[in-house]
Amino acid sequence: MTDEACRPGPDMGRFLDLIREYGSQFTDDESTTPEEIERLTVDEELSDIERAVYLLSSGQDIQGTSVVANLPVLMRQNPAETLRRVLPKIREVLHVAGVEMQLTAAVSFLTVLQEESVSIHTYSHSFLHIILQNLEHRDAGVSNAWLETLLAVIEALPKETIRHEILNPLVSKAQLSQTLQSRLVSCKIMGKLANKFEAHIIKREILPLVKSLCQDVEYEVRICMCRQLEHIAQGIGTELTKTVVLPELVELARDEGSSVRLAAFETLVNLLDMFDADDRSQTVLPLVKSFCEKSFKADESILVSLSFHLGKLCNGLYGIFTPEQHLRFLEFYKKLSTLGLQQENGHNDNQLQLQTLEQEKKYISVRKNCAYNFPAMIVFVDPKNFHLELYSIFFCLCHDPEVPVRYTMAISFYEVAKLLNSGVYTIHKELVTLLQDESLEVLDALVGHLPEILELMTSGGENSGSESKLLSIPDLIPALTTAEQRAATSLKWRTHEKLLQKYACLPHIISSDQIYYRFLHRMLTIILTNNVLPVQKAAARTLCVYLRYNRKQEQRHEVIQKLIEQLGQGKSYWNRLRFLDTCEFIMELFSKSFFCKYFFLPVLELTHDPVANVRMKLCYLLPKVKSTLKIPTDKHLLQQLELCIRKLLCQEKDKDVLTIVKRTVLELDRMEMSVDAFQKRFYENDLLDQEKERQEHLLLEMEQLEKEKQQSEGRSTSINDKMFEKKRRDSKTSSVLAKSITLSVPGSSSGTSAGKDDKKSKLVRSQSFSTQALHPKYSNIDKCPNKSSATGYTSSVSGMGKSCMLSFSDDSFRTHSTGNSGNTAFPSSSSSRNLFNSADQKNNGNKERQSRKMSIKNRKSNS
């Protein structure tokens, strides 16, 4: 623990200053006289029950409160004596107890019920009467605490007990002659009782009380009863709801008190599913329309409630809306979504008024509720119409100046993306905006479903074209990197950890090269430089996932080498500890053979680490390391493992490490080695490992296929480019020759010279093409003569040269000859003759050079 953690806070510091300043007064006070100390002293030989009875009888209030708080413990230890001796004393004390003891008793009684220390029959006999007596305490907080306890008890009590002990007294407690607090308590109890009895009992005994309380003279009672009508409706069913509850709600919706009307509106919205189409269109819809029209003229708190329930309301009444009503409610939602922003945007500069802070908070709450309801409004307008009807509102909410609004949009972003399906690409810019939001709370809310969102973004519905998906990637990757960097520079390491964990999904989203160059090395940097252990572990696991799906062997080897050199062989012992963490993730994600091939020996090297903590962590890891071995394939690695353990046993000087080594040796001895062949006991693990190994081999095969494909595409591209260039040059030459043929007389000197120049140009083109456009499999043509013997050299070279050139000319020039078949100036035979002539000249030159070399060799041998 740091010094700052041990240092007292400002409040504690002030408290200590008061003690120092007034310490003498505390010691000289009359309450600390010897007589008082003697009175507060308790005999240590008393049992827990006797001590509790003594403190409740003659102790101070704080001592009595302590006994009441300890009641659940006494009930667990000795329930019979506690009920017989302690509980009656508590009942006596509560009559005159203060607020603190009353609240403590309510909590303790509820704890005893939840722990089931006694049977429910015993509990109702001993505790229920005390709870009912304190329900009408003059302090509202105490009364509510006991009421919460009673409502929890009602869930567990049998029907007969509820009827005799609670329902029958409730009739008198709900009368108008009773206190306001008594009538409020009665409302909440009736809402709870509605689910405990049959419909006919509720109709006969509870509904008359409900009607009476709905017409109470106090608006607080009407509000409370109105909010309980939802629970009562669920208990009595749809028929009685339609005939009894709905008329009461209609009357309450027209109440003179705005708070009562608001409660009635919220209850109507929550009960929409219980009303049929006629009730919705003839009764509910007119009330809702009237309520919405008057909302802007009323208090802003009504707008807050209305905006919260608007999504449920619109979808609940969707089937009965006319097109005009549908449009009206949509416009109402749009108006609420920008409430309070007009002045900021400068739309009402002439009517600019100073808003109170309370108003601004309510406007923010309204826009936040609109953001909460945005998925419901997409369903209301149909996802196909999103871009036309709601995109502008979506844009405004994602760019709202207040963090709570953007936070709510970030939470609901995944729901929006799911609803849009094939049109999800339309909100890609807003995803980038939220990823780059200045508030880390918004980023943290978005990260929760980031893998699912990215999956939808890059491989959305069937109608989203691949072109739009590819275009969405370039600005998404910078946004992801920016989000990680902002989280890294903040003090909210949990957000950073969460982000790194979610980034493990990227191999399914973007290409291997993009991950390698933009994210993989960043993960390694975090492991090496970050100071928060959970963040380092999250980065290590994500790096292993990236390595698992990397499709280039060269890159994989580079990363493995860096892990071994910078972590496993790093100068800091902290880095070497993280190397062992990384190896655990490697064993989890990769096959056993992969770990043994690259990491087994580097891990064993840490047995010689100078830091005891590293050796200790390695010892804990050794059983997992041994489980990666297969016999007899990895027999040599098993020998290395046993050798390292022997060295640890013999040479280890640290006592703690040696203790763990001995414990690890026993565990390793009990382990059963897996063999190359499948075993029944390891069948599932072997199957899983085999699947990992198969996927790793598949990555290698895919890499090889991609290389071959790229090579073939490169060759075809180069050949096509050169053939196109040759055609272009031939077309220019043909036009020149055509002019020369028309202007010159056959047999003249000018024509002869032009023909010679033309032959030379064709010869040069054929030679250059034949040397540049050779396929790699013909690259050994020039080496053919070296393989022949000295005696048959001339004939073999000429034959091989002609055959090689013939095959190449047939493959390469066939397109050229057919493409220019209409040109009389360049018959195909001339190009082939020129090609053969050039080949013969090359072969003759090679013969002469080879004969000179042989003659020199013969002279040397003779000498």
TrEMBL record:
Primary site of residence: cytoplasm
UniProt-listed SUPFAM superfamilies: ARM repeat (SSF48371)
- Which InterPro entries does the annotation name? ARM-like, ARM-type_fold, HEAT_type_2, PPP4R4
Q: Which domain of life is it from?
A: Eukaryota
GO cellular component: a single term: cytoplasm
The HEAT repeat ranges on this chain: 206-243, 245-283
> Is the keyword Chloroplast assigned to this protein?
no
Q: Where is the composition biased (Polar residues)?
A: 733-753, 786-796, 815-844
The record's note on quaternary structure and interaction partners says:
Serine/threonine-protein phosphatase 4 (PP4) occurs in different assemblies of the catalytic and one or more regulatory subunits. Component of the PP4 complex PPP4C-PPP4R4.
Q: What does this protein do?
A: Putative regulatory subunit of serine/threonine-protein phosphatase 4.
Do you know which PANTHER family this protein is assigned to?
A: PROTEIN PHOSPHATASE 4 REGULATORY SUBUNIT 4 PPP4R4 (PTHR21467), SERINE_THREONINE-PROTEIN PHOSPHATASE 4 REGULATORY SUBUNIT 4 (PTHR21467:SF0)
Q: What name goes with this protein?
A: Serine/threonine-protein phosphatase 4 regulatory subunit 4
What is the organism of origin for this protein?
Answer: Grus japonensis (Japanese crane)
